Amino acid sequence: EHLAKTSPDDVDGMIRLNVLALARLTRAALPGMLDRGHGGIVNVSSVAGFQPSPSFATYSATKAFVTTFTESLSLEVKGSGVRVQALCPGLTRPGWIAGRARKVSATFRAL
User: Strand ranges (DSSP E) for the chain?
Assistant: First the structure.
């Protein structure tokens, strides 16, 4: 659904889940891992974060954050014994995406 038609609550919810929760949970877990000298963080991003995606602007932007945050944090903790990685799966078919995938596909075909 286009951003102009998305409710502010839905936009806020996606940002809270994919950006704020991720950053806060990482911040909560990281000090203990650094103290122990080992640990691992795997954040779930998406290939959608690597390219603009019509009808998925907020989702794609939040996943770009996940990837960049993860890469940056990985460099911050390099040599500490803590590994930080992003998993970037491709397109899947959860219920919310079925109708939108057809719209996005039609948009790209029209280009």
Answer: 39-44, 82-87
Question: Greater confidence, 21 or 107?
Answer: 21
User: One of 41, 46, 53, 59 is an active-site residue; which one?
Assistant: 59
87 Cβ neighbours under 8 A, 6+ residues apart: 42, 43, 44, 45
Active-site residue, 59 included: yes
Contacts of 32 (CB under 8 A, 6+ apart): 39
Q: Which two tokens stand for residue 39?
A: 């640990």
Check: CB of residue 22 under 8 Å from CB of residue 74: no
Find tokens 């998305």 and name the residue. Answer: 6
Would you say 82 and 39 are in contact if contact means Cβ atoms under 8 Å apart? yes
pLDDT digits (tens, 9 = 90+) for 81-96: 999 999 999 876 666 5
If one counts every other C-beta atom within 10 angstroms of the C-beta of residue 28, the result is 9
